[in-house]
Amino acid sequence: MIRKSIIFILLLFFQKNHSQEPYSININRKDGLPTTNVYASFQDKNNFMWFATDMGVIKYNGFTFKHFSTDDGLSDNENFNFFEDSKGRMWFNSYNGKLSFFQNNKFYNEKNTKKLAQLKDLGLIIQISENSHGDIIITYRNGTIYTLNLNSNGSYLTFEQNPIYFTLQNGNYFTSRGICNKYGKCITPFINIKNISNFNIKNFKFKNKHYFAYNNKVFVIENNQIKKITEFDFKNNEIISLFIDSKSMLWIGTRDGVFEKNLDKWNAKTSCYFKGNTVSSVNEDFENNIWITTLENGIYFLPNRNTSILNDQNNQILNINCLSKDKFNTLWAGSNDNDYFAIKNSSVANFKATSTSKPNNIISQIYHTNQKTVVIGNHAIQIKDNKSTNTIQFVGGRCFLEDIEGNYWLGASYLFKLKPNYFQKLTNLGLLSTNSSVMIANKTTSLIQNKEFIWAGTNKGIFCLENRKTINISKQFPETATAISDLYFHESTQNLIAGSNSKGIFVFKNNKLIKHISKKNGLSSNTIYAIKKGFLDNSVLVCNNFGIDAINFKAKNYTVKNLNSTFGIEGTKINDVEIIGDNLYIASDNGLLVVNYKNLKQNTIKPKIVIERFVVENKNYYLSKNKRFNYNQNDITISYIGLSYKSQKNIQYQFKLLGSDKKWTRSKSSEINYKSLSPGKYEFVVYCVNSSTIYSNPAKISFIINKPFWSTYPFMFLVGAILIAIGYYFWKQKEHSIKRKFEIERNQIQSERDKANIEKQIIALEQKALRMQMNPHFIFNALNTIKGYYSEGNDEKAGDFISKFSTLLRMLLENTEQIIPLSTEIKMLYLYIDLTKIRYKNAFEYKIEVDPAIHQDEVAIPMLLLQPIVENAIIHGLSPKKGHGFLLVSFYKKGKQLECVVKDNGIGRIASAEKQKHKLHESKAIEITKERLNLLENDENIKADLVLEDLLDDNNNSTGTLVTINIPYKNIW
After folding, report:
1. Contact (CB, 8 A) for 620 and 614
2. Is 372 exposed, middle or buried (0-12, 13-18, 19+ CB in 10 A)?
3. What is the pLDDT of residues 53-103, one digit of tens each?
4. Of 574, 549, 559, 547, whose CA–CA distance to 648 is shortest?
5. Minimal CA–CA distance to 2: which of 420, 391, 372?
6. In what order do the strands lie in the sheet with 331-335?
7. Can you give the pTM of this predicted structure?
């Protein structure tokens, strides 16, 4: 009986139908359009959208509008349509009948293109097309057809007194007499069509058929036959545009809205949208979005055809703040200005909960008990039943709940627990925090009940009330002590789900926090407005200030899915949702939307990516493959754009510069700058990712930065050869000079007048001679190594070797004395060993140690004393070793002697001798060194010796060789 009474009362209010239109986004001056008078839209081959207006043409990439006018090269600011030819040229159909086209970011017109300047002024152009030869076919309203080729002379064809409306695919023409061939002969005349004006024929080509509209009728041309397919009962209206989309839906633009009819189902109802708008064109992009242009209100963009908007009986948008449904599946919607609505099928009932103290009563919740509907507003509360409506002038109401015992719970500045009879008379007077009805002395925004438990969401976190006990859950979990916007109890998982104002979602089980879900985990936003049951039992829908997310719970895991692109509401603030039957109702600041979610299909269309600009040193380039730049043209900026109009600017990019970057970079920026790129070959690869996380195909661009001439192989080889020649020349000069001095000094010692002094000079000269005997051997090996590198094409290693070799050579030439500082000897050893390592392909490691008590710059040592020993250890000990070798060079102070130690872990002297197929011997290097030590010992009268020791393990197997040299310890100064 109660149910029938409520239905009867509601039916009294359901007197008017609400209007339902496709959900659209209106693009006008506030979004960057220079005008709201738009004649046509067009999608080019790169998937950019173009719009023809009375103030020029506009190119749109989903982010920004780029406006072109006569200042940029258009022939006229007023343009009616576009045509793109096979060469990528965009042609513009202008009001003044003069042609211009756009290619590679440049306009061509009669001022800069000779062939365009030669065109006759024949008036209005009705169509621009292209033949199979690539010629541009221009059809004029007066019956003239011009074939334009920019590289040769064109030709005119005239239909005398026979206006042409459009060109058919088979080469025939649709004229005022009917279908005519290129000779003007009428093939198919009109039948029962009279008084055709020059401007009311609209046509569209679809699946090799031509459709055209005349007055209120639509015809199709197939096999040169004209057939009427539909007729509209217009009054004071006319057809001004025609379009057929990929779903075979016929869109007919008129001066009073757009009509939609299914070509495959002619008996289906014809829908009319956007009443009051002069619809100049309809178009469809690569994502199947619909673009509707108007002559008054700019552009309407339809991101999803399954999403509609519900308006009131006056066709006004319903700004809805909250949604709920009663047990009869009636949708209730609360607004921000006193109104709330009950919506059933195609009817809407409008109610008001008016406050006497404030002009606007913001409805935050509509709650349904068994017998009543309670409307909670911030300045008034209304209780509606089958008999009466009671408005309570209470300020601050936010949420309401009736518990299993019949008590009323009201969330406001505090949480109140009230008896129903007291609630009916509720006022703000006397309701202090000390009142016995106050259960929680915090601002309460949401309430939820499950059996004996009641949870309250407040501005300071979450509370649980059970058996008159109040538990502050957020005290146990401090991260949840924040403003809570909504609570939802998930039956299938027995989880309590809490939405917050700034921290996302908290999930509790048995009052224990088990999950925290935020933007880091995939939420569109951390600002949550509402949580409702999802499409599946294990899912919930989360409303936030950037759209709707679906959270699916599976055992201990969960997944987050963004639904914004699916519904076409990308970046839209969503206040609440409600599912009734197969429909999802969405409350937003843009209106009340409805989606038939059963018909939804996952978006699988890939976005597009285009590299728009390639700038080198502030100069823009159109790149061919592997374009080359000089070494100093290495400051490069690359601009790219991702095209996904359905994503509504929610696009990310992933890019990598092969040849430079080691990892992929993820960014929302559509431009990247590379500074000071090194010479080399590069390829830039970029993807875009739309809001459905679908990747585009990659866009690629490759280029080469040349090496400077001094880094090229021929130049490096030439320099290397010159350095070697110079080094060899100076070495020969040095050798010749030393030999000449030696001869002079040897002759001088013949004199007995200064025998002691002469003997010392002889010793010094002999040491120099011995040192020079070692140098040719070393230089010969070095030259062979350089030659080998160049033969192998290893120019980089050759360059490195030459650099170190030249440094060592310079030190040899600069240090002419036989005694040098220990620090210089060590530097030369480092250079020599590094060069030798390169030669033997890093077959060993080494280390040079110096006793801390030794002052390296002050202690004297014969030049290159250890070099022959080191060379011997590397060549005969380490290089034949299987495995990695190690060389240790050490210097110690032992009383009045300097102890020099060379230790290696090579194959040992015995194995080395066996490999050389002769007996154990001392190399020439050892003999030379011993001779130098004998001379040094005679000069200083302090013992100088060399000791060789074979290193053996416990099984008498060789583990290397130890060479110890003792020389007098003396300062160089």
Report:
1. yes
2. middle
3. 999 999 999 999 999 999 999 999 999 999 999 999 999 999 999 999 999
4. 547
5. 372
6. 16-17, 347-352, 339-344, 331-335, 320-325
7. 0.69
